[in-house]
Amino acid sequence: MTAVFDKIYALADQVEKGSTTELDDRARACRATKETIADTKALLESVRVQLSEAWHGGAGEAALTSLEAFKKNRDDQAQDLEDSAKSFETIRDALAKAQQEARNTRADAESLQKKLDHGWHGFGIRQVDLAVAWAQDKAVKAQALVLLADLERVTTTYDAILLIEGQKLRFKTGQVWELAGSEKRNLAEIGAIMLREIPGLLALLKKYPELRAALLHQDWNKIMQNPEVAQKIYDYLGFRYNEEGGFFTTGEHSVQSYLGWKDLYDKFGEAFGMELDETGDDGDNMEFTDTETGKTYRLELWKGKYGNHAFGGEVGFYTSDSPNNNGHFNAAQGDDQIKVTQTIYNKDTGQVYFTNDGQGADGTDKKHFWNLAIRNDPGVQADQLPLGQRATIEVRDVGMRDRMYDEMVRYAAAHPGDHLTVTKGSDQPPTLSYDWQK
């Protein structure tokens, strides 16, 4: 039984090693840097206004444009720092709560251990005394096991928050890349943490019996209406229900952002009840290379049935540092991300089902690596809907827009049965639009 108490004390020690003060300092440092950036931005604007009154011609206009872009970069960096400060504060508060619970558990364990150590004292050798002592011993041991289980739950909950907020920090485009003192997670660790959450999800199903029936009928709308379940699903899989639009979408920090993209993933779709139209299903994908950075980019489109009563579409954007990537692409991050407004509609009637204008993206820029919109409607047979998808895509510069446009036009010409039409949009911001009626 000593081993149980040793585990309790070891877990408590592990939690108590964390520093809420250090996390608080990081949050304050982020905000202090944000204020400095705000001052720099104000100075830049003042200089730009003064120069605009005197600078004319091509060189002057180009310099002013560069200053404007530099100023916007400061806005993006300031937003990164504010979001990072909030992440550090979330981790700080979670750690403080975990440490308090760990201290309480340690105190309870020490009290139980004393009771166990002295449980046999004061009794004689009479059979009744032995029976009472034996019963008390069993009760104390059972209480110790409950304490250990509670403390494991506390550490699992904190570990999950550290993973989620740490991932947000890692994907920032500014200078804050730390994972709040934790080592970078590998996929095996992520999987292990998710598996450890399964008992908690099963407990929620037991707590809310109506969810079991909803799960059997694939009624995801009802399932996601439960805030506890919805938060778990968002934390680990990134899916969130958009009430205004009536569809599910995804966040940037989902597990999918770690996995990136391989063509093999499409092969798993049928196992999950998906019947999708997809680009690249014949091995010809929409890919292009940026001559300046050497990166290769992959644009993926999907639309169709996601279950008996679920339908929608996706626009995914992925990157690789080299064309020789064995078919694996990373989820686009930072400046590589794109802003997508995706509409799913009925090809026969023109009826618009829903539009995702970038919901799910972190921050306010609506840039993401994955625009997903899926509606679950028990009143429809998803495989009978003649779905079309149209979208407007905004990218970081005209050069990238033109390369994406050229590749989409090439793909459309090579696949006339896809009925894909592509048009260029504005240069400021750089956009293109398409209509896909496969």
Rg result: 28 Å
If you average the pLDDT, what whole number results?
A: 78
Number of strands: 14
Oligomer: single chain
Give the amount of beta strand, in percent: 15-25%
Helix content: 40-55%
Distance between the termini: 65 Å
Spans of 5+ residues with little confidence (pLDDT < 50)? Answer: 122-129, 174-185
Main sheet summary:
6 strands, antiparallel
Structural class: alpha+beta
| Order of SSEs | HHHHHHHHEEHHEEEEEEEEEEHEE
Shape: globular
Q: What does it look like?
A:
Keywords: Coiled coil. This protein has helices at residues 2-16, 20-52, 57-117, 127-170, 187-207, 209-216, 220-224, 227-237, 255-259, 264-267, 398-414, and strands at residues 239-242, 247-250, 275-278, 286-289, 296-307, 310-320, 330-331, 338-346, 352-356, 367-368, 370-376, 387-394, 420-427, 430-436. The chain has two domains: 1-179, PPE superfamily (Ferritin, Up-down Bundle), CATH 1.20.1260; 238-436, no CATH class. It is α+β, with helices and mostly antiparallel strands and 438 residues long. The protein is 51% helix and 20% strand. It contains eleven helices and 14 strands. The strands form three sheets. Strands 3, 4, 5, 6, 7 and 11 form a six-stranded antiparallel beta sheet that branches.
Features:
globular; alpha+beta; 2 domains; 438 residues; six-stranded antiparallel β-sheet; Ferritin; single chain; 11 helices
